[in-house]
Amino acid sequence: MNNLFRLSVGLFRSGTGVYRLGPVSEGHASLVVARLFSSAPENNELGQLIKKDKVVVFIKGTPAQPMCGFSNAVVQILRMHGVDDYASYNVLEDQDLRQGVKDFSNWPTIPQVYFNGEFVGGCDILLQMHQNGDLVEELKKLGIHSALLDANKDEQKK
User: What is the pTM for the complete model shown?
Assistant: First the structure.
């Protein structure tokens, strides 16, 4: 990944919930809410959190109900690629999380996307990766097969 978008160290203050989007069954996403952060910022919970899952997103709202167009775009791009097992954190629930993730990544906006603990970027970067095909390759590195590859094969057969 581009070094420009690598993680930079920052501080994080405690206290929010996490939404874990699991496999979609019968068109409904299953959300599980968990309390993850303690009150000690030096524990670097955010750094550990982004490494727990292959794909982690910080958005406004939830994958089932994004609360801004950019967050919705990230959710839709991931959905197009068949990425339905990722951790999602709603920054609207806690201002400390909202500012903490911005400080952590040194990136001023939400949404933010992480692959294998590495900061990828925001909506604009993910959209660009989707458009130029880099997202398929990055997902492959994560062991995730993009659903768009299957869709392209089906189109070529017609």
Answer: 0.71
> Can you tell me the distance from the alpha carbon of 128 to that of 120, in angstroms, rounded to the nearest whole number?
11
Using one digit for the tens of pLDDT, what is the confidence trace for 58-88? Answer: 999 999 999 999 999 999 999 999 999 999 9
Structure tokens that stand for 98 in this block: 């909202």
DSSP assigned state of 110: S
CA separation for the pair 123, 151 (Å, rounded): 23
Bridge partners of 113, per DSSP, are: 57, 121
In angstroms, the CA 19 to CA 150 distance is 28
Q: Which residues contact 12 (CB under 8 A, 6 or more apart)?
A: 37, 41, 44, 45, 46, 47, 96, 97, 100, 101, 103, 104
Give buried/exposed letters for 46-64 (b at 16+ CB in 10 A, else e): beebbeebbbbbbbbbbbe
